[in-house]
Amino acid sequence: MVGSSLTDDEKTVANRRLKIGFVLLVAGSMALMSLQIDPTPLEVAAVFGVGIGVGLVLLWFVLRNFREFRQSLR
Hints:
The structure is a single chain. By secondary structure, this protein is mainly α. It has one domain (about 10-74). It has helices at about 10-35, 40-74. Helix 1 (about 10-35) crosses helix 2. The chain starts with 7 loop residues before the first helix and ends with a helix.
């Protein structure tokens, strides 16, 4: 049987990068959406900061639901 080609350390690094990418995607998307109302650079930075917070909350929500889903399969 063929196992994973990644070591546990590589899996940890890959998961961390995916989580960071998800949060940055949410924050970047919020900052880009704010450009539609012609904001100042400070306002764009503030929206990006708020987007990081929103991204973290969304990440927590998705991971929590994913864990519950995996437990229900067992």
